[in-house]
Specification:
7-stranded mixed β-sheet, about 30% helix, alpha/beta, Dihydrodipicolinate Reductase, domain 2, 2 domains
């Protein structure tokens, strides 16, 4: 356990004892970098993982820290626990962290739709943190970028219905997904057939429906249904008739980092492309990149290593009054690690930790 900055003085401004479950995973590694970049006030950092990774080392704050096995007793004396691991670990251990007085910030899908657990994007619904009971959930990496693009439009003109098509990077499946893309690329270069183990079909030079599970009752994938449920929970009632309608198709593409989405948005009140650009540009954490005459539009390469959600190709649908736009974000940063750290910062700013 690293002892970085001894705590002293006003308890409300003291440095915090932090644990990170999943410290050796793709999101865990990025989360460590974000904590350092944003100079989060850490007194002690305890890296944790499953027993498979216990005993390995990570680098943080100029120190080599030994990863310990994630067990309930590890949370004694901890203020905040970031969960960037499997849902099974979160399901087992997040309540244990809360019982021991810590606040668990979970990146898995385990707690997102639990009515007692806030699902938070700090730029949108920070007040939801006030009702936490020891566990806070961070949304799906795809959902975060999409709601960041939708919320400015909701505030400007209300939302009625959104048709979403996502193009999701392989890192959405963690290191195994990124490694599979690289291995398939190498295999094809050697004249060999690519082997698919993480995804339902080879992802190199291909596009694959994101199909963890297809629902028997309607044919939608679990990823598509998560996007619908999470968006509604975060945005809440979006117009006079209630929650926004969501139609979604989610696919995996051969990109390492950076989720993209095409959005076709029906607002409650008329909203011109010009007013939409202004609303998006004024929203914290969103950058408009939209100059068709110069071929300026967001791509996944543009967002790697960045926290802003980029939005472009803002235009009127030719067949209706709906708006079409294109959104891209780094799924490992704002879609995962950065949002979790922002939740921690907001808890601190609101005097909740």
């Amino acid at each position: 356990m690293s002892n970085l900055n001894p705590s002293s003085g006003d308890p409300s401004s003291r440095d915090l004892n932090i644990a990170l479950v999943g410290a050796t995973g793709a999101v865990g590694e990025v989360l460590l970098g974000v904590l350092a970049e944003r100079k989060f006030p850490i007194a002690r950092l305890l890296p944790l993982a499953s027993n498979r990774s216990a005993g390995t080392t990570i680098q943080f704050g100029g120190e080599a820290l030994t990863v310990e096995e994630a067990r309930p007793e590890a949370f004694d004396g901890i203020d905040l626990v970031f969960f960037a691991a499997t849902g099974s670990l979160s399901k087992e251990l997040a309540p244990e962290a809360a019982v021991r007085g810590a606040i668990a910030i979970d990146k898995s899908s385990t707690w997102r739709m639990d009515e007692s657990v806030p699902l938070v994007v700090p730029e949108i619904n920070p007040e939801a943190l006030d009702s936490h009971r020891g566990i806070v959930s961070s949304p799906n990496c795809t959902t975060i970028g999409i709601v960041m693009a939708l919320e400015p439009l909701r505030r400007a003109a209300g939302l009625k219905h959104v048709v979403i098509t996502t193009l999701q990077a392989t890192s959405g499946a963690g290191k195994p997904g990124m490694d599979e893309l690289a291995a398939q690329q190498e295999a094809v270069a050697k004249g060999e057939e690519p082997i698919a183990e993480v995804f339902a079909a080879p992802i190199y030079n291909n596009v694959v429906p994101l199909c963890e599970v297809f629902r028997e009752q309607d044919g939608y994938s679990s990823e598509e249904f998560k996007l619908l449920e999470e968006t509604r929970k975060i945005l809440g009632p979006t117009h006079a008739g209630g929650d926004v309608g969501i139609s979604a198709t989610c696919v995996r593409v051969p990109v390492s980092v950076g989720h993209s989405a095409n959005l076709l948005v029906e607002t409650e009140r008329p909203l011109s492309p010009e007013d939409a650009r202004a609303a998006l540009a004024a929203f914290p954490g969103v950058e408009v990149v939209d100059d068709p005459s110069s071929n300026r539009f967001p791509t996944p390469r543009d967002v790697v290593g960045r926290d802003d959600v980029l939005v472009g190709r803002i235009r009127r649908d030719l067949c209706s009054d709906r708006l079409a736009l294109w959104q891209v974000s780094d799924n490992l940063r704002k879609g995962a690690a950065t949002n979790a750290v922002q939740i921690a910062e907001t808890l601190r700013a609101r005097g909740l930790v």
